[in-house]
Fold this sequence. Notes:
By secondary structure, the protein is mainly β. The protein is about 0% helix and about 50% strand.
Amino acid sequence: MTFTFRARLWPVLIPLVTSCQLLDAPDVVVASMNLSASTTTVIAGTTVQLAVITRNKSGAALSGKRVVYSTSNSAIATVDTLGVVRAIGPMGTVDVSAQCEGVSTPALTLTVTAAAASAVTKVGTAPTTVVAGFSAGDSVRVLVSDAFGNPRA
């Protein structure tokens, strides 16, 4: 696109005509986003890094954009400003998403699983001796849970 400017130089009133051409500005507006993670199953107490790619309307990747992350249930997992998801527990699923310049990603569903067993709890009293044919009145149950209190089988 070319524009022509006309002006008069003062004080001699000499007409001055010049023209300039506008170049296409780089397309830096976010039109779409992709959100991914290296895994969608996260063990309680661990983290996973999200990856987001912002693209302009031509599909070219954009850099330096401020992305805001969110989670559907912060009791199960949180996500920080750098896109690091921390699985808190209890076990379950959580949707994470990202937004930039009014454009949002589809939700990415992560599954939080229980951590390794860290506690074994005996419930009830066990007899100290067992005689064949004798049935003790108390039963003993053993509960196994992870560090977050999630039951483990």
